[in-house]
Design brief:
Length: 384
């Protein structure tokens, strides 16, 4: 029986992880679950899975949670310190489904525990990749990527030894809902259009990132840290059907590709049962029914967010953290209708262009770097 700590239990990753836990109640048991503010859903999860620990974002939520769960005998912790405490608990597998920069701190603590961290949070690797991988290496913590593309590459690299004979690692991208629009045609797209992802059912923020292709840029930065490869060995490829998730090119001309239906339960099941395989409840992939798989190069002029992310990846230092912070602020502003779609890239570009005082190269410096970039993005947007 594997004890699971589920960070971000009420989000998309949480839904899928809990679905797998329900299917395999003999293999997994929920030890701890966190939510930012969805008290009702967290209470429902607690009734169904009876965890020992719950963490909720704010103190007011704690009272509502306690009131909703009169028979709950476990701990209810609050906020960042609650998340930190949860991350320190000994567990078989921690699933990090928290979205955004908030996932960095608990990911760092999980990486210091020596267990298994199934990482779905992008920002921990984008902003703090070197630190996170360093911490995991130091403590023997296994980091398993939940994101479909990295999970694909992780699977493809099993048994391949070192990466000396890997020429290229390619992450596929659906191209999002605006794949067939020109740059100018994206000017007036609505938030509803941007969050309507063709293949994946995801949260609003990541759906917008998919529409701008910032998502793929962040994923390239993640891949760089996860697989310890040089930036020039990483590329993205448009593949509208989202069946092939990642490809590895080897020196001998062989190219391995991982395929699967676009369902988060596929990579999550791989992480949760690793190194075994379990039924993920996903219908078998019917390639004959799909008939064809299409691929196309990404036009960086059409998707400037991808080019910005690649530039930040090459610049390294604090650039990826600033890129990520500016993007979070810009996407939030877009979702609130305060800026247009194309202004997301403009905001990120403006923040990356700002001169920064490179502080210490320490994980402790990241919150200040993040905050500064957020403030700069906010100022840029206010002046638009
Ligand atoms: Mg992905």
């Amino acid at each position: 029986m594997r004890q699971v700590s589920l960070f971000g239990a009420t989000g998309t990753i949480g839904d899928n992880a809990l679905d797998l836990m329900t299917r395999h109640a003999d293999r997994f048991s929920l030890f701890a679950a966190s939510a930012d503010n969805n008290v009702d859903k967290l209470a429902d999860i607690a009734r169904r899975f009876n965890p020992s620990i719950l963490v909720i974002g704010e103190a007011a939520g704690r009272e509502r949670l306690a009131a909703a769960l009169p028979d709950f005998s476990g701990e209810i912790w609050v906020g960042e310190s609650g998340l930190a405490q949860m991350a320190q608990q000994e567990t078989d597998i921690a699933i990090m489904g928290i979205v955004g920069f908030a996932g960095l701190a608990p990911s760092m603590i999980c990486a210091a525990q020596g267990g298994t961290l199934a990482l779905a949070n992008k920002e921990a690797l984008v902003a703090g990749g070197r630190h996170l991988m360093g911490m995991a290496g130091q403590h023997g913590t296994k980091i398993l990527p939940v994101d479909s593309e990295h999970n694909a590459v992780f699977q493809l690299l099993q048994g391949q030894g070192d990466l000396q004979h890997v020429d290229k690692i390619v992450l596929t991208a659906s191209g999002g809902p605006f794949r067939d629009l020109s740059y100018d045609e994206m000017r007036d797209v609505s938030t509803a259009q941007a969050v309507a992802h063709p293949n994946w059912d995801m949260g609003a923020k990541i759906s917008v990132d998919s529409a701008t292709m910032m998502n793929k840029g962040l994923e390239l930065i993640e891949a760089r840290h996860l697989f310890d490869v040089a930036a020039d060995k990483l590329d993205a490829l448009i593949h509208p059907q989202s069946i092939v998730h990642g490809l590895v090119y080897f020196a001998d001309g062989s190219v391995l590709a991982q395929k699967g239906s676009p369902d988060m339960r596929v990579p999550l099941a791989y992480c949760m049962a690793y190194p075994q395989r379990i039924d993920a409840g996903v219908a078998p992939l019917d390639l004959a029914a799909h008939g064809r798989l299409d691929f196309a190069a990404v036009d960086r002029a059409q998707f400037p967010c991808l080019a910005l992310a690649e530039a930040a990846m090459r610049a390294d230092g604090s650039a990826p953290a600033r890129l990520n912070a500016a993007n979070e602020v810009a996407v939030a502003a877009f979702l609130e209708g305060r800026i247009g779609f194309l202004q997301i890239a403009e905001t990120v570009d403006a923040v990356l262009q700002k001169a920064v005082s490179e502080g210490s190269d320490d994980v402790a410096a990241l919150p200040a770097i993040d905050a500064e970039a957020r403030a700069q993005a906010g100022e840029f947007i206010a002046a638009l």
